[in-house]
Amino acid sequence: MNQVLLKASGLVKRYGSKSVVNGIDLEVREKEVVAVIGPNGAGKSTTLDMILGLKRQDAGSVTYWRDDYKASVGVQLQSTPFFPGLSALDNLKLFAAFHKRRLSVEEGLRVLELCGLRDAARTEASRLSGGQQKRLAIAVALVHEPKLVFLDEPTAALDPRARREIRGLIRRLAESGASVVFTSHDMEEVGKLADRVVMIRSGKVLAHGTPEELPAQYGVANLEELYLKLTEEAAI
Amino acid sequence: MIRTVFRMMLVASLKDKITLFYALLFPLLLMAGLGYCFDSPEYRQRLLIGVIALGTLFWAVQGVAFQVYGQRNKGVYKLLKLTPFPTVSFVLALTLARTVIGLIINAVILLIGAPTFGIAISFSGVIQLLLMLVGGMLCFTCLGFLVVNFSRHEGQINMLSNLLQIPMVFGSGAFYSLSAAPEWLARLGKCFPFAYFVEGLQAAAKADIRPWGVSMVIMLGFAIVILVLAALTFRWNPDREPGLRMRKSGAAG
Known about the structure:
Chain A has one domain (4-82, 146-235): P-loop containing nucleotide triphosphate hydrolases (Rossmann fold). Helix content of chain A is 36%, strand content 26%. Chain A is built from eight helices and nine strands. In chain A, the strands form two sheets. A six-stranded mixed beta sheet of chain A has the order 5-6-7-3-8-9, sandwiched between helices. Chain A has a three-stranded antiparallel beta sheet with strand order 2-1-4, covered by helices on one side. In chain A, a hairpin with a 2-residue loop joins strand 8 (196-201) and strand 9 (204-209). In chain A, helix 2 (88-98) packs across helix 3. Chain B is mostly helical. Chain B contains ten helices and no strands. Mean pLDDT of chain B is 87; it is low at 245-253. Chain A binds chain B through residues 13, 15-16, 20-21, 40-46, 49, 52-54, 56, 68, 70-71, 73, 75, 77-79, 81-86, 90, 93-102, 140, 203, and chain B through 1-2, 4-5, 8, 11-16, 70-71, 74-76, 78-85, 90, 237, 246, 248-253.
C-alpha cells in the first residue's frame, strides 16, 4: 500500500458558538487523487485551510509524511494572489525562490507552457484575464514539482477549453506520481479525475469512497445524483 | 534565493510609480519652490537636508505601507506562509530593496541640490550622510510596517501615516529652526525618531561626528523598538484583525 502523505483526524473549527467543521478526517496517500466535494459553506475551504496551517483548528490533528513538508507541497488557493507589478514569469520565478529553487527562464517558460500561458509570460500578472490568472495560480503551485498538490476549485469560472486543459494537467500530475487533493462542484469532473471522493456537508463527512462504488452503495445512478440525495437528506 | 527575492522586490518597488513620484518629484519641487523663496545660503543647506529627510520619510513610511498593504490584500503572504521561505527573510529583502531605491533617489536629490545651492559637503560628510540615510530608511521602513499592521484599508494608512508624520515634521526643525517655536513642539518632536534623523543629517553635512553619532544611536534605538512592535503585530492574513488578537467570527467555505 502506498505511503500516507497526509493524515488529518477529528478536525474541528468553531467561530464563536458556531461549528463550521465538525470532526473531519482525511487521509491522502502517495499517487492518489482525492476530490473533496460539498455545497457552498460546507466547510471544504476551512478544512483545507486547517490542513495547510492557514487556520488553527480548535480540535484534531494534521500530520504530514515529513516535517519539512512545505518544500514538497504545492497550493492553489481560490483567490489568485500575485505580486503586483511583476509579470507572470517573474511571479513564477519569485515563488520558485520561495521554495528554494532557482528557476531559469527556459524552465519558467516550460511550466507556463504546461499551463497554457507561454504567450502571456511577460504580461503583468494582474493584467491577465481571470482564467489566465487561475492557470498562473496553478503554475505557481507546480513550479517546484511538489509531491502533494492542493487545488481549491481549480476549474471554477473557467471556459470549457480552459477547464479541459486544467483537467488534462491534473491527470498528467497524477500520472507523474504526484498526489492531488482538489475541491470541485462539477461531479462529472470529479468522476473522471478522482480515485477517491470525500463528500462534506455542514462540516461533517457524509460519504467517502471511489467514484464507482459510491453511487452503487447508495443506490443512485451517478455522483451527481448521490450529491443531490445526500445534501438534500442532510438539509432536512 | 534571497537574491532572487531581493531582485524581484526591486522590480516590484520600481513599478510603484505613485510612491516614486512622492519620493523624487515632490522633494525636487519642494526644494525648487522653497529655494526660490528663501535664498540665504544657511537656509539652503537646511532646506536640502530637510528635503532629503522628508523624501526618506515619505518613501519609507507610506511607500512600504501601501506596498505591503497591496501584497497582503492580494493574498500573496498567505501563499508565502505555505512555502519554506522564512517571512523574516522576505521582509528583509523587501526592506533592502526599498532602501537601495531610496538611497538612489536621495543621491539624485543631493546631486541636483548641492551644486544648485552651492553647498559643499566633505567626503567624510558624505559617508556620514549615507550611513544616516541607511539608518533612517530602516527605522522608517519599520514604522511603515507598523502603520500597515494597524490599517484595515488604504484610507487608514493615510490617516495613521499623517498622524505620525505631521508632528514628526513640525517638531523636527527640518525646514525651520525650533529656537523660536513653542517648547512643547520641540519636546513633542523629540518623542519621535525623525527629529534625531534630521539632526544627524545636519551634523553629517558639516561632518560633525559627535552629534551625528548621538543622533544615530538614538534613532537606531527607536528602530529596534519599532521593529519589535512591527514583528509582534505583523499580519500575513488580511482577514486577521489588527493587533495580536485573532478573529473570532467568520464563515465556512
